[in-house]
Specification:
Elements lengths: L9 H10 L9 H9 L8 H27 L5 H25 L3
Helix pairs in contact: 3-4
C-alpha cells in the first residue's frame, strides 16, 4: 500500500488501452452486438447546465457590484478583500469546471 505508483494522464491511458485492445475477429457482427448491449450515453443534464447559467449571471452581478464598490470606496477593509477574493475564486472555479462537465467553451 505504501508503494506510490506514478499517475498516468488520461491521454496516456487512452493510448495504452487502444494499443492493447483486442481485435474483433472474423465475425463482422461482433462489434455491433457489443455496442448494442452497452448502456445508452447520458445526455447533458439541463438542470446542471441551468445551474451554471444562473451561477454565471450571479457572478456577473457580483463582478458589477465589486467593481462599483471598488470605484466608490476610499478604504478597503479585510471584509472587502475577502469578498473580492471569494468572487475571483468562484469565477475561476466555474470557468475551470464548466468545460469539463458540459463540454462548453
Amino acid at each position: 500500500m505504501n508503494d506510490k505508483q506514478p499517475m498516468i494522464s488520461d491521454d496516456a491511458l487512452k493510448q495504452l488501452l487502444q494499443d492493447k485492445a483486442h481485435e474483433s475477429g472474423d465475425n463482422p457482427w461482433f462489434t455491433r452486438r457489443v455496442l448494442n448491449r452497452l448502456p445508452a450515453r447520458r445526455p447533458i443534464l439541463w438542470m446542471g447546465l441551468a445551474a451554471y447559467v444562473v451561477a454565471g449571471l450571479l457572478l456577473v452581478g457580483a463582478w458589477v457590484w465589486m467593481l462599483h464598490d471598488a470605484s466608490t470606496t476610499t478604504a478597503y477593509t479585510v471584509r472587502d478583500v475577502l469578498q473580492y477574493a471569494a468572487v475571483v475564486a468562484v469565477t475561476v472555479l466555474c470557468i475551470k469546471e464548466a468545460p469539463r462537465r458540459y463540454a462548453i467553451f
